[in-house]
């Protein structure tokens, strides 16, 4: 499978606004993004080695989003920091059974983010606010006391 993310310009391939990413990067100092905009690689492949501090804005299609959440939890248990930008879905199984028990923090974003895509001229444009509210979920191995 060439690109597990299955992103395309009409659905799952949206860029995080620079100002929002920069704010998170200033705090967490990312060294890897397994879901970069318009990348042609598989961030879920077993041979894909994630960094020590990962920014993950996964595709929002359910199956792919859940796979990235599960991988982020797995990576955090190895000692890697995983910061995810996710749509708010607090009534779902994945939220209650995976995110809540494993997240070291959850922050709800005030207002809706304006994700971006490249237009025909190659310039980034926003098509308005996203369809969902957003949350920043941090998975980080809990230190034993």
Account of the protein in words:
- The chain is an alpha+beta fold.
- The chain has one domain (18-139): Rossmann fold.
- It has helices spanning 18-28, 62-77, 93-102; strands at residues 53-56, 81-87, 105-108, 116-118, 124-126, 134-139.
- Helix 2 runs parallel beside helix 3 (93-102).
- The radius of gyration is 15 Å and the shape is globular.
Tags for this model:
145 residues, alpha+beta, Rossmann fold, four-stranded mixed β-sheet, 6 strands, globular, 3 helices, disordered N terminus, 19% strand, 26% helix
Q: So, CATH architecture?
A: 3-Layer(aba) Sandwich
Mean pLDDT: 87
Terminal-residue CA separation = 42 Å
Rg, Å, rounded: 15 Å
Helix content: 25-40%
Instruction: Tell me the strand order in the biggest sheet.
Output: 1-2-6-3
- Gross morphology is globular
Outline:
The protein has 145 residues and is α+β, with helices and mostly antiparallel strands. Helix 2 runs parallel beside helix 3.
Outline the fold blueprint:
Blueprint: H1 18-28, E1 53-56, H2 62-77, E2 81-87, H3 93-102, E3 105-108, E4 116-118, E5 124-126, E6 134-139
Parallel strand pairs: 1-2
Antiparallel strand pairs: 2-6, 3-6, 4-5
Helix pairs in contact: 2-3
């Amino acid at each position: 499978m060439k690109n597990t993310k299955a992103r395309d310009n009409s659905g799952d391939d949206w860029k995080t606004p620079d100002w929002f990413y920069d704010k998170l990067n200033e705090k967490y100092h990312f060294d890897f993004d397994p879901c970069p905009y318009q990348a042609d690689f598989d961030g879920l492949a077993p041979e894909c080695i994630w960094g020590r501090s990962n920014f993950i804005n996964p595709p929002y299609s359910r199956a792919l989003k859940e796979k990235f959440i599960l991988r982020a939890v797995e990576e955090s248990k190895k000692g890697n920091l995983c910061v995810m930008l996710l749509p708010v879905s607090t009534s779902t199984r994945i939220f209650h059974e995976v995110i809540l028990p494993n997240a070291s923090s959850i922050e709800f974003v005030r207002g809706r983010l304006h994700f971006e895509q490249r237009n025909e001229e190659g310039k980034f444009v926003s098509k308005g606010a996203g369809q969902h509210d957003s949350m920043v979920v941090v998975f980080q191995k809990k230190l034993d006391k």
